[in-house]
């Protein structure tokens, strides 16, 4: 039996599919760029960053983390022709609220020894300073041998309270 969330997803998808007219879009993104941003539910990347269907790759993970996104970025660039990266973190991010030890403690409490063992040594990659985290991730991407020098990389901060986007680096 489907959960309420699953049933709603099926219903909403049926409504979406009944009017879907974008099946002709090409596989590579039309505007040749990728966005790395947070998985935070308060962010709608298409609306907030002006991305139409088919324009860009949007890679989402906890904190809009460059290291977690690297595999997807390499595929985006090397196999699908993107040539620019917008790294966008945001105000009020959950990654600002804890340290690795805190996360490991919660995992141990909630998942027990098996969960703790599987995630032993995992860096949850929290950050205490938003602007510095943006700068560090941009530096990481620019220094990475997997990201060619020809790729433009910029770092941004999105304000979840105002909806405004600010170029940082």
Automatic annotation (TrEMBL):
This is Carbonic anhydrase. It catalyses: hydrogencarbonate + H(+) = CO2 + H2O. Binds 1 zinc ion per subunit. SMART domains: Pro_CA. Its cofactor is Zn(2+). GO terms for molecular function: carbonate dehydratase activity; zinc ion binding. It is an enzyme of class 4 (lyase). It comes from the Eukaryota. Keywords: Lyase, Metal-binding, Zinc. Its EC number is 4.2.1.1. Zn(2+) binds at residues 38, 40, 90, 93. Reversible hydration of carbon dioxide. InterPro entries: Carbonic_anhydrase, Carbonic_anhydrase_sf. PANTHER family: CARBON DISULFIDE HYDROLASE (PTHR43175:SF3), CARBONIC ANHYDRASE (PTHR43175).
């Amino acid at each position: 039996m489907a959960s309420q969330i699953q049933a709603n997803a099926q219903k909403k998808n049926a409504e979406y599919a009944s009017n879907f007219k974008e099946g002709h879009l090409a596989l590579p993104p039309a505007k040749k760029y990728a966005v790395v941003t947070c998985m935070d539910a308060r962010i709608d990347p298409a609306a907030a960053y002006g991305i139409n269907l088919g324009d860009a790759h949007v890679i989402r993970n906890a904190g809009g983390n460059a290291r977690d996104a690297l595999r997807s970025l390499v595929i985006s660039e090397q196999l699908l022709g993107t040539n620019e990266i917008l790294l966008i973190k945001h105000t009020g991010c959950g990654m600002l609220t804890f340290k690795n030890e805190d996360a490991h403690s919660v995992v141990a409490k909630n998942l027990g020894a098996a969960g703790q063992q599987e995630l032993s040594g995992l860096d949850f990659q929290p950050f205490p300073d938003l602007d510095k985290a943006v700068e560090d991730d941009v530096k990481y991407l620019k220094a990475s041998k997997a990201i060619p020098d020809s790729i433009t990389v910029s770092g941004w901060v999105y304000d979840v309270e105002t909806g405004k986007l600010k170029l940082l680096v």
